[in-house]
Amino acid sequence: MRYSLVELAPVTPGAGKTAALEQALGAAEDAERLGYHRFWFAEHHHTTGYAAQDPAPLIAIASRRTSRIRLGSGAVLLNHYSPYSVAERYLMLQALAPGRIDLGLGRSSAGPLVDHALRRDRQGAPVEDFFSQVEEVVGYLHHAFGPGHPYESVDLTHGIDGVPEVWVLGSSGGSAALAGGLGLGYAFGSHINPAMTGPAIERYRQSFTTTRFGPQEPTVVLTLNIVAADDEELAHRLTWPARALRTLGRERPVPTLAQATAELDATTKAEPSVVRDGVVPPQISGTPESLRAQLEPLVRDTGATEIMVQDMLTDPALRRRSRELVAQALAPIGAGAVGTHQPPIHPSKIP
Prior knowledge:
The protein has one domain: TIM Barrel. The chain is built from 13 helices and ten strands. The chain has helices at 17-33, 55-65, 83-96, 112-118, 130-141, 176-182, 197-207, 232-237, 240-248, 257-263, 266-269, 288-302, 316-330, and strands spanning 2-7, 38-41, 70-73, 76-77, 101-106, 165-170, 185-189, 220-228, 284-286, 306-310. Helix 6 runs parallel beside helix 7 and helix 12 (288-302) crosses helix 13 (316-330). The two termini are 21 Å apart. Mean pLDDT is 92; it is low at 336-351. InterPro entries: Bact_Lucif_Oxidored, CmoO-like, Luciferase-like_dom, Luciferase-like_sf. Keywords: Monooxygenase, Oxidoreductase.
């Protein structure tokens, strides 16, 4: 099984966005060294906590600093762009790093004011057309507009070796059938909506149709918030910055571990961070050994082909060590090396 990372470029209090972006680019180099399969940059608008507003320039710079790891967007928020511009930009990235570019497509709101500022047409009412936008992006990338289509003659791929891998990202299950129907890979944000993990993946599998646009069989990336340390107590405490951001407000830099320790109440600190009885908490923690025991049954019963890791750590040393230990935990899963002694999770208990 593959393991990957999604990078939000969290901003440390007092450090600023320049430092966060540089740390994010260095993390791509670390991820390649640690054996991660792909490294995606997120897109968040008008936030003080994250520095990654546009994945494309980060992907371009990271492609110069790495040689093997796949690089991509997690995700391009397609509701803010024209499909043509997205296809063109990511084909340029494909030309820069042939065979290494992923185009993850999603949708999200940055709030009414910023959503309005991001729109090109500010006169009419916003239109919910994500499904047709994804289809149009795929049409450009694969020169797949049929006879009589107004864009039939448009060929953005001329002179470019290959095309990016296209993924549909979702956290509610609504995009599962779209991804399956187009034969694309599906990345589910289980860290955002763990209760929908099982139903969304099942819907994707049931709707999957093999096409020339993606993999030949259902391919699922499961995104989880995972942190690791050399002992269980520290690993659990590393979940506290994400909890503080979630419970005490997101409109600020990501709290340090010391800040989160001071801000959170005892009840929030004690919330579970272990996958137990099929229940996936918003943040997962452990040592490499305990993480394998938690995640191997989850991978087996969801049929995920890849786990994508997200974290909210800003301390460089803690972050680097956590990602190193997470790689140690995930690398053997699916190879029969670990976890086979664990009792299976009943499918009805998969959230």
